[in-house]
Amino acid sequence: MPVNALYRDDFYLSTCEAVVTAVHEDGGIELDQTCFYATSGGQPGDTGALERADGTKIALGQTKHGPSKDIVIHVPLENEPRPDVGEKLVLHVDWQRRYRLMRMHTACHLLSVVCSYPITGAAVGEEESRVDFDMSETIDKDAVTARLMELVAENHPVYLQWITDEELAANPDIVKSKNVRPPIGLGRVSLVCIGENSSIDSQPCGGTHVSETQEVGQIHIAKIEKKGKENRRFRIRFGTPGDEA
Questions:
Q1: pLDDT tens digit sequence for 65-93
Q2: Does the pLDDT at position 167 exceed 80?
Q3: Is residue 205 exposed (0-12), middle (13-18) or buried (19+ Cβ within 10 Å)?
Q4: What is the mean pLDDT of the chain?
Q5: Cα–Cα distance for residue pair 174/184, rounded to 1 Å
Q6: Helix axes 95-114, 141-153, angle to 10 degrees
Q7: Mind telling me which PROSITE patterns this protein's record contains (predicted)?
Q8: Partners of 228 in the beta sheet?
């Protein structure tokens, strides 16, 4: 059944109460609401635990979407106990992991500002993220890092605006990605905006992000790889070159 995905409106919500609405044969658990982000758009789903009334916990290995985006399935690790339908649980997101992913995902958006080329692929990770661009130019990774850190240090606000699916369809040019479909189908689409009045950037994205750019912290471009005649892969890592965080 459709879930109330609380993370869509509050990226910093790491715990909440929920009621079990379904338990699948493979152990997947559906809840009436959740603060767990489901794998989507290159960002991994949350891990963490579901706490039962007696204090015991069900450890989760991943969170994913079901047949549609309004269904979220919480997948326990192997041999974890199964809750009962109707049981009330307290959800605990692995916040340290989620926050690193939020910082990384925001960094990817900043990179798309520095390198204003169509995006052909992306993957957000805890230690390293990658963004692929449709570009043939040679660019210096240290220069990109310097510009990224300028945007981080300027501490621009990061926030959401909502538009309808129809508004997105009428303005296709706001989509930077060439081959990743924006998160549509729920009636509304979230735009991740950076800077006052979207002065730095605005693009459709269903991922989780920090609330201001300084939270990204120290990042750098570790490598730029040539992937075909007109494709470049940028690898983003925390810390400074030679001093990974």
A1: 999 888 999 999 999 999 999 999 999 99
A2: no
A3: buried
A4: 91
A5: 14
A6: 110
A7: AA_TRNA_LIGASE_II_ALA (PS50860)
A8: none
Cα–Cα distance between 23 and 29 in angstroms, integer? 5
Token pair for 191: 């735009």
Rounded CA-CA distance 43/62 in Å is 12
Structural domains in the chain, CATH included, are 4-93 (2.40.30.130), 98-238 (3.30.980.10)
Q: Which two tokens stand for residue 33?
A: 């609401």
| Dist CA 1 CA 221 (whole Å) | 42
- Find, among 23, 201, 49, the residue nearest to 112 by Cα: 201
Q: Are 74 and 87 in contact (CB under 8 A)?
A: no
Decide if 50 contacts 89 (C-beta within 8 A).
Answer: yes
Residue among 171, 18, 152 nearest 85 (CA):
18
For residue 46, what pLDDT is reported? 98
At 138 the pLDDT is 85
Average pLDDT for 93-115:
97
In this predicted structure, the answer to whether residue 183 has a pLDDT above a threshold of 50 is yes
Cα separation, 16 vs 182, whole angstroms: 27
Half-sphere exposure of 138 (CA within 13 A, CB side): 0
Position 212 confidence tier, pLDDT thresholds 50, 70, 90: very high
- Look up the pTM and report it: 0.90
156 in Cβ contact with 195 (< 8 Å) = yes
